[in-house]
Every structure is written in C-alpha cells, then in structure tokens.
Amino acid sequence: MSTLSTFRSAVDKKLKDDKHVLGTYSLDNTIYDLYIEDGVRQYSKKRPRKDIYEHTVVTGETTYFSLPTDWEEGFSSIIELEYPVTTDNKTKFPPEIVDQKSYKVDRVPSGATSVLRLIFIDYPYPSVGEIFWARYTKRHTVDATASSIPVADEAAVINLIMSICCNTIANYWLTTQSSSIGADVINYQSKADEYSKRASQYFSMYNGEIKDLETGIIGEWDPSLYTGENPLTHDQDYQ
Fold it and tell me: Residue 70 contacts by C-beta under 8 Å, 6 or more apart in sequence?
C-alpha cells in the first residue's frame, strides 16, 4: 500500500533538483509534503473520493439530519440518497433513490451558532429508527500509513506534484535572475526555462492520464454495491 513516503520518494527520484532548491531530501523528510498536499487537493477537485454514509435517525431529528463527520463544507457533495433502505435482493428490487430536488445541504440554527445538516424538503421524511444511505464525495488523503488515491491514478498524481515542484523551482531561478548580472543571468534564465518546460510537460502527462478531468462527471456506482458482491471498479473508493 502506498503511503506519504512512497510519494516523497517518487518525486525525489524524478525531480533531480541538483541545486537542492526545495531542500535536501532524506528518508521521511518533509520537504515535498506541501507540494504533495497541493497535488492531492487539485486531484481531489477533479476526481473526488467517493464514500457511503449510513445514518440511523435519532430522537430530535425531524426534517434535518446529521452529515458524515468527514464532510467538508465547500468540497463535499451528495451523489445520491437512498431511502428507504431495504436489505432485499436489489437486483430484483432496485434501490429507491430520493429525487435530488427533495433534499439539500444547508445550515440550520443551533443555539447561538449554526450547523451544517442534510435537510429533507419533501415528504416522506425518515422517522426515528429508520435508516438512509448517502453516497457522497470527499477529499483524498495521503498520510504516513495509507493513501486513498487509486493505484491506477498514482502515476498521474505524481506527475501533477512534479509539475507543481518544477514551477516552484522555475520561479526561484527567475527571482534569482532579477538580482544578478552578466553570465549568471543567462545561466539562471536557462534554469528557469528548463524547469518551466518540465512543469508543462508533467502537467500535460497528468491531463493525458486522467482523461475525464474536465467533465466533472463521477462514474456510475457498481451494481455490486447493491448485491453484496466485491466491487469491480471502485475498490479504491472505500479505504
């Protein structure tokens, strides 16, 4: 399983930053972490992680209900809401998906502040003891123990991180150039051009490997999610 160290090592091997503009790399060194975080953030916007949340309605919940604890305001969104939930064979009895116009995520009053809640607009509302399933998006994570990025997309994300790193190095050499004269200016400009070109190349590779980036479309859910079988195409979505 890939971890933060996997990404650090991959970036260092490809970057070849001979002047150590970003710092000197060693095992578990953090010099690339901000760039990795930025790459994961950008990738998550285009191809977010998908998860499923099961909520059992408790006393006091009427038309608005708690969201997952890892819901991120401004990023997360509901893909679909299933209610009522049945354990019957869903190949024979398809899941009942709530019309998207029948609910929304918004803030509701909570004392002197407000909290984000899932709000049912139209009847029927889930009642106490009933369950609904919310399929939703969230940001990918990469840490010391695991990565939620699908293995098939890791090379693309590394190329994106490489693009960010190369742009940073190119900007460094441009800044250095501005305070220099003579032959050094030519050398610094050459370095800036080199890394700017590499940044563009890596970003092009990233775009080429993630072919549906601009569509904003999230793939269909596997029928296996309804039948209890092992999912065939989204096995990385539920880590």
Answer: 51, 76, 138
